Structures are given as C-alpha cells and as structure tokens.
C-alpha cells in the first residue's frame, strides 16, 4: 500500500495546487536511524514531507486526536503514522518511537505539536531532544513552506544534520531541552531562508501559548527587531 500510494499520490503533488519542490535531499541518509524534524504550517505537511523524503520510508508520530476520523486514520496509517496522547506521558508511543530508531528506521516528528497559521514557530517539545540523543541517530531538520497556501509551489528543504553529541546539561531534562533548542534553532534558520517571517529562534521551556491551536502571536522582541515589511 505504501509503494502504491507513492506511485499514485507522489506525481499529483508536483501538479497544481501544491506544485511541490524539494531541496537538500543529499542531507537525508539513505540508511541508518534518522530523526526527521520539521516545522508545521499546514495539515498537508505530513503528506508533502514524506513524499519529499521518498527515498526513505518514514514512520510518523501524530497526535491521537487525528485518529478519531476513520478516513484520516486510514491515511495516517498508510504513512506508518502512530498516535501519541499528548500531555499524559504516553509511554507506549514513546517506546514504539525509540524502537523504530533502534531498528535503524526514519522517524518523523513535528516538535511544535500544532500547526502555526502565521508561520511564526512555537517552542519545541523536549521529546524531540530526547529522541535526538538516541545512540546512532542522525538528526535531520526539514521545513515545509507555502503548503499553508494550497496554491504552491510548496517547498520542502532538508538541512544539514544537527549535532547533539556534545550536550553539557547536568540532568536528562536539561539535556533534552538543550537538544530541542538546537533543533528549533536549525529549523528557524531554514524556515526564514524559505520565506517564513523573521523571528528569533524559538528556544526555551514550553509556554501556555505554545500549546494553543492555530494562530501564534510573535514575541514582542521579534516585532521590535524584525525588518519592516515592504509597502
């Protein structure tokens, strides 16, 4: 089913309205354990990202609410997605994700947890940093842009791997946060280069507004330092 979906669906993504374009695929290893981390600006991101990474069969962590719709659940499972119940410490989902990495597979994670309708990135959840520190894992950042417009061209850019091998945090929690902040910094740089709004890297502990769905207010410091938009 996965191969059939790529044969049928993949060519359609290069046509209107999405007109997918991809860059930096040389950064995505063809073998070995990979944590593929991505920003999140559209419900189309998972489909477009996995299609752009087509030389690797991916598995994806997705919020459990998406599996409530039978059709959506079918499409997600077609992409080897599995549910995670957020905010309750879903040990089963975390163990499954770790087992995928231990088997040398490619795991897709959206560290922000929600779609940002404005393109301003949220701070990442520390689980991404925990997965990134698994032995032998290559952490590859990727950004999707213009998928939110549904008129393309939707662009997917893969960046150089993020090194988290030299973390100095004194506790596991601190190291997870530091690894996640490095990931979010790399994602922010890639996103801005792709056309996202100028902003400071979204680093630091999760805030209440990072947990809200939809619109994300940019930080006041970003508004103060960002270049004015052309009129």
Q: Can you walk through the features of this model?
A:
This protein has 231 residues and is an alpha/beta fold. It has one domain (18-225). The chain contains seven helices and seven strands, in the order H-E-E-H-E-H-E-H-E-H-E-E-H-H. Strands 1-7-6-2-5-3-4 form a seven-stranded mixed sheet, with helices on both faces. Strand 3 (58-63), helix 3 (70-78) and strand 4 (81-84) form a beta-alpha-beta unit. The longest helix is centred in the C-terminal third of the chain and has 23 residues, at 172-194. The termini are far apart.
Report a brief summary of the structure:
The chain has 231 residues and is α/β, with parallel strands linked by helices. 33% of the residues lie in helices and 15% in strands.
**N-to-C CA distance:** 49 Å
Q: What level of helicity do the residues show?
A: 25-40%
Which stretches are low in confidence, meaning pLDDT under 50 for 5 or more residues running? Answer: 223-231
Query: What share of residues are in beta strands?
Result: 5-15%
Helical/strand content category: alpha/beta
Count of structural domains: 1
Number of helices: 7
What's the main sheet like?
7 strands, mixed
Strand order of the largest sheet: 1-7-6-2-5-3-4
Q: Please tally the β strands and state the result.
A: 7
């Amino acid at each position: 089913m996965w191969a059939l979906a790529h044969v049928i669906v993949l060519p359609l993504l290069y046509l209107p309205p999405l007109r997918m374009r991809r860059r930096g695929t040389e950064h995505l290893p063809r073998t070995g354990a990979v944590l593929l981390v991505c920003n999140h600006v559209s419900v189309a991101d998972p489909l477009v990202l996995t299609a752009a990474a087509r030389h690797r069969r991916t598995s994806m962590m997705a919020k459990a609410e998406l599996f409530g719709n039978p059709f959506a659940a079918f499409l997600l499972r077609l992409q080897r997605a599995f549910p995670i119940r957020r905010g309750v410490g879903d040990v089963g989902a975390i163990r499954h994700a770790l087992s995928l990495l231990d088997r040398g597979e490619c795991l897709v994670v959206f560290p922000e947890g929600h779609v940002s309708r404005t393109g301003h990135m949220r701070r990442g959840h520390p689980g991404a940093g925990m997965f990134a520190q698994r032995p032998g894992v290559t952490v590859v950042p990727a950004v999707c842009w213009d998928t939110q417009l549904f008129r393309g061209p939707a662009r997917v850019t893969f960046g150089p791997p993020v090194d988290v091998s030299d973390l100095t945090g004194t506790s596991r929690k601190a190291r997870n946060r530091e690894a996640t902040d490095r990931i979010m910094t790399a994602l922010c740089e890639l996103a801005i280069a792709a056309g996202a709004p100028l902003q400071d890297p979204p680093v630091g502990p999760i805030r209440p507004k990072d947990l809200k769905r939809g619109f994300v207010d940019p930080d006041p410091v970003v508004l103060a330092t960002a270049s004015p938009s052309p009129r």
